[in-house]
Amino acid sequence: MRIYVVADESDRDGGFVVERLVQRGAEMIELDRADLPVFVDLEDPSMLLLLGSARGAHEPASIDVVARESALARAALRAGVPVMAICYGAQLLARALGGTSYEADDPELGWLRVDTIDSVLCPEGPWAQLHTDVFTPPPNAHVLGSSWYGPQCFVDDSLGARSIAWQFHPEVTTETYNRWIDEDEGMIRAAGKDPGELRRQALANAARSRNAAHRLTDDALEFLGVGISDTPVSDQLNAR
């Protein structure tokens, strides 16, 4: 099963989500969002995974990149290929389906709980947050979770195939979150947050986050109808 992962060349870390997809037997194929092919050039796709980014989907400088990724996502859905999206990917997908995104008044930082109406596809967490943008959901989407900052999860099937998007970061590992803190320390301090406290939260939630991300990935695959093996590759090998 081929899953195409759309990410920036400088940050392709799909963390716990990709880890679980590989355990479930998926072949991960990386695509650079700054140089995307058209959908018809993808070979036998089972799903698109749109990862996060330091860029903003609303930024004028990213208009061409956003347009290409939006076109790829819409073409996939129309062809029956589901889409999973995280943070920037969620903002991108919202815009691709008729919603929008914009810079928030304040960044959303730390391990925070979300308000949910679906504890399977949008568990309350706490989940890792580190972003300065929010999205307005597409007109035909169903919002499953939110926080004080804005929507946290939506699902949509208006173009045919199903999609799911999370504003929070189920994929993020402690190492990646610490790197993001290093890269955004100025913004974090300007928001009145302590980078050291965010590091402590990342460490304290490490084991729980991995288990929660694996479970969420499994449930999302079932919702999306992606036919990846129910048995992790490690278990298949042990059974031989």
Please characterize this protein's 3D structure:
There is one protein chain. With 240 residues, the chain is α/β, with parallel strands linked by helices. The chain has a single domain (2-172, 212-231), classed as Class I glutamine amidotransferase (GATase) domain (Rossmann fold, 3-Layer(aba) Sandwich). Helix content is 35%, strand content 27%. The chain has eight helices and ten strands. It has helices at 15-23, 63-78, 88-96, 174-183, 185-190, 195-204, 206-224, 233-238; strands at residues 2-7, 27-32, 45-50, 83-86, 100-112, 115-116, 127-136, 142-147, 150-156, 163-166. The strands form two sheets. It has an eight-stranded mixed beta sheet, with helices on both faces. Strands 5-7 form a two-stranded antiparallel ribbon. Helix 2 crosses helix 3. The protein is globular, with a radius of gyration of 17 Å. The two termini are 21 Å apart. Mean pLDDT is 92; it is low at 233-240.
Helix count, DSSP H or I runs of 4 or more residues: 8
Enumerate the strands of the largest sheet in spatial order, edge to edge or round the barrel.
2-1-3-4-10-9-8-6
The poorly predicted ranges are 233-240
Globally, the shape reads globular
Count every beta strand, where a strand is a DSSP E run of 2 or more residues.
10
Fraction of residues in H or I helices: 25-40%
The CATH topology is what? Rossmann fold
* Amount of beta strand: 25-35%
Distance between the termini: 21 Å
Classification by helices and strands: alpha/beta
Which whole number gives the mean pLDDT? 92
Characterize the biggest β-sheet: 8 strands, mixed
**H/E series, N to C?**
EHEEHEHEEEEEEHHHHH
CATH class: Alpha Beta
